[in-house]
Design goal:
The structure holds three protein chains of three kinds. Chain A is of the alpha/beta class. The model of chain B has no long low-confidence stretch (mean pLDDT about 85). Classes of the chains: A alpha/beta, B alpha+beta, C mainly alpha. Chains in contact: A-B, B-C.
Chain lengths: ~230, ~400, ~100
């Protein structure tokens, strides 16, 4: 299937618009991500790739322009619908992992689906399954503060997968990892892409964008797209 | 079933509260204590008032005291005859009573004479009152019986106005259940009390007036004041309402306790109302980023406030009830007792005004929940994208 | 056991205790009404006017009988009895509904 899963048109995002600390983060970006793409947003820090990822992931709304997710315009949806969409379609892996301290691995993984109608036993089974596939079963009752970097990341990945998302977004995922763990991360992402998920990674780590089978590279600088490379 | 989501959110909230175990335990402790004190005061005062009302409804309808130089003086019994002639007056009887300081136990007793008998099957009097023609016999209250270690058949010696000692035999002791009324009483017959206190002939402590029609009492009181300007009539209504005032929230000690509880409570709510810590803001951001809606966050905050305030309220109110009705308000004892040696065990009857309890709950639980939810509002509605950049 | 369930059980236990206390209170109150008759008989026979909750001074023992200036009644400059004196406040004439008439002679 090669239909478009994400399409942005002339998307612009200002922060603190009209105020003294106004900042232009994303400037007139038009791009298309296809279903099943392994995509990378490439650029140095400050290039706007994190903001663009945030816009695509329905975490914030554009100042102007439109964003289409699975054919649906999400640019002006009210918050409730955005959250619902986020819950159904996206899985997010943050640069800092952003796990909730003080609870254990399993609880962190289940957390995104707490305020839904899924029964707790089904949720638990699902979470345990995902942790197993990531080799984290042994650690499932551990509080997250005690985990190593790699374990924390795998917990973050597991959390992003709990809702069985169509699209996985990762922001600088290898920033806190050594080479071995970075390679492992890419392998994990590849297995998900092979299962039919769409992956979008924002990074400036060559290990990521120079690795084998990236379908789409979007180069960014100062909020604008400078180059789009599609590997057909 | 849509109830799942609420239980899940509650689960997370409880987990969250347990993460800051000591802080939250402290809050529950203080909150419960505030409810405990306030609840105890409400229970104590309401019960007192109801009991006082039920008992004192049998007090004399009208009492006439004589005043001299602003102080309570003995009243000539001849006035009774003149008062009897006022229309509406059924009966006028002189009362003889006063105080006695017992230096042996450093206690004050109330000594009075009885005119009317008490029926034999009154369970609150063990024994009997002195007969009208009997001399040197007394009935005493339980407080005196315990302070002096005397009972039916024992003797008690009181020093009279003439300096001599009057030896009296105890023929009746009031039971503990009537303590609130009789604890410090010594009942003599009329001749004995007059001799003991050295009350001049023709004088009495005050006069008790019975009227035909209760509604007429204020009118008759006015007339008595008119005819005898140096007297002070006291209506039964005023007697009862005195106790409303004594145990009302305006009484000094109770007001102080309330104020203290209020300050403690404000400090509690202030901690919440001054906004979220950085940690809390971050947590909300993360939850939003992983898919929690604003309404879910607010529900979490609601549960947070609810769990703490409702738990504290229940603990506090149950403790207050036990404190007042099972343990006789023992914490307040020293405050109410003061210098009294004869002090009744507060075996209070659990009259409860549910309206008071509901008001207390409304005034504590709802503001607390509000002070938990409202400061989170801003963080809850912010775009989760902040978390991304943070 | 899920934490929510523990919380619900705690609330349920509290409510059960409260119901128990409420039931017991109702029983005691109705029991009191019988004892109240005996108390009323004593009150009427002895013509009592006050409850004996504090016996450290005249105006705390018989607040209903006390003069308006009772706080200083013992002697000029006498200190008030604390704390029972702070509990006993003088009757508030505004709420007592007693009319004070001033007559010009």
């Amino acid at each position: 299937m090669t239909e478009d899963i994400i399409r942005t048109e002339n998307v612009t995002k200002y922060y603190n618009k009209g105020k003294i600390n106004e900042a232009l983060a994303v400037n007139d970006v038009t791009l298309t991500v296809r279903h099943g793409d392994f995509a990378v947003l490439k650029g140095p820090s400050g290039s706007g790739k994190t903001t663009l990822l945030s816009l695509i992931g329905c975490m914030t709304r554009p100042t102007s322009g439109s964003i289409n997710v699975k054919g649906r315009d999400v640019s002006h949806l009210p918050e409730r619908f955005l959250t619902d969409l986020r819950r159904k379609i996206f899985g997010f892996i943050f640069q800092q992992f952003h796990l909730i301290q003080g609870i254990n691995v399993l609880q962190n993984v289940m957390l995104p689906l707490y305020p839904t109608d899924i029964s707790i036993s089904r949720l638990k089974t699902r979470a345990e399954g995902i942790l197993e596939s990531l080799g984290m079963s042994k650690r499932r009752a551990f509080p997250v503060q005690g985990l190593s970097g790699g374990e924390q990341q795998r917990t973050a990945i597991a959390r992003a997968l709990i809702n069985d998302p169509d699209i996985i977004l990762a922001d600088e995922p290898t920033a806190h990892l050594d080479t071995a763990l970075s390679v492992e991360f890419m392998d994990i992402m590849r297995t998900f892409r092979d299962k039919g998920k769409t992956i979008i990674i924002a990074t400036h780590d060559p290990l990521v964008f120079e690795s084998g089978d990236i379908d789409l590279i979007v180069e960014m600088r100062d909020g604008s797209v400078t180059r789009v490379l599609r590997n057909d | 079933m849509s109830i799942n989501r609420h239980i899940n959110v509650l689960d997370y909230t409880l987990q969250s509260l347990l993460r800051r175990k000591f802080k939250n335990a402290g809050i529950v402790l203080v909150f419960s204590f505030v409810i405990f004190i306030t609840g105890s005061i409400l229970f104590l005062t309401y019960s007192f008032k109801r009991e006082a009302f039920l008992i004192l409804n049998s007090s004399p309808e009208l009492l006439v005291q004589r005043m001299m130089a602003g102080r309570h003086e003995l009243i000539p019994v001849t006035i009774a005859g003149e008062i009897k002639r006022i229309p509406g007056v059924a009966k006028v009887e002189p009362r003889y009573w006063g105080y006695y300081y017992d230096s042996l136990v450093k206690a004050n007793y109330t000594i009075l004479s009885s005119a009317d008998p008490i029926s034999a099957n009154n369970r609150l009097l063990k024994g009997r009152l002195p007969f009208a023609d009997e001399h040197n016999t007394v009935a005493i209250g339980r407080g005196i019986s315990e302070a002096r270690f005397i009972g039916p058949g024992s003797g008690i010696s009181l020093q009279g106005a003439d300096g001599g000692y009057h030896d009296l035999k105890v023929v009746g002791v009031f039971e503990a259940d009537s303590e609130l009324l009789t604890s410090d009483l010594i009942v003599l017959n009329q001749t004995d009390i007059i001799k003991l206190f050295g009350i001049p002939e023709g004088m009495a402590t005050d006069l008790a007036v019975d009227v035909h029609n209760e509604n007429e009492a204020p009118v008759i009181a006015r007339k008595i004041r008119e005819y005898f300007p140096d007297t002070r009539p006291i209506l039964r209504d005023e007697i009862i309402r005195t106790y409303d005032a004594v145990f009302g929230w305006r009484s000094g000690l109770i007001l102080t306790l309330f104020a203290g509880a209020l300050v403690a409570f404000i400090i509690l709510a202030w901690d919440k109302a001054t906004g979220l810590s950085a940690d809390e803001k971050k947590e909300i951001g993360i939850l939003k980023a992983i898919g929690w809606e604003t309404s879910d966050i607010l529900e979490m905050k609601f549960w947070e406030g609810f769990v703490i305030s409702v738990s504290s309220f229940l603990i506090g109110i149950i403790s207050a009830h036990l404190h007042v009705f099972f343990w006789g308000a023992s914490l307040f004892g020293p405050a109410l007792k003061g210098w009294s040696v004869i002090y009744p065990d507060f075996r209070l009857v659990p009259f409860i005004n549910p309206y008071q309890i509901a008001t207390l709950m409304t005034l504590t639980v709802i503001p607390y929940i509000a002070s938990t939810i409202i400061p989170s509002w801003k963080a809850s509605v912010t775009d989760p994208d902040e978390v991304m950049r943070g | 056991m899920r934490k929510s369930y523990s919380f619900f059980i705690f609330i349920a236990v509290c409510l059960v205790i409260i119901s128990g206390l409420a039931a017991r209170s109702t029983i005691e109150v109705s029991g009191f009404r019988d004892a109240a008759n005996d108390l009323r008989e004593i009150t009427a026979a002895l013509k009592l006017t006050d409850i004996c909750f504090s016996s450290d001074a005249r105006y705390t023992r018989h607040p209903a009988q006390a003069d308006l200036f009772s706080a200083f009644q013992d002697y000029p400059g006498s200190i008030e009895h604390f704390p029972s004196g702070s509990v006993v406040s003088p009757p508030d004439f505004i709420t007592l509904d007693t009319k004070i008439l001033v007559r010009n002679r």
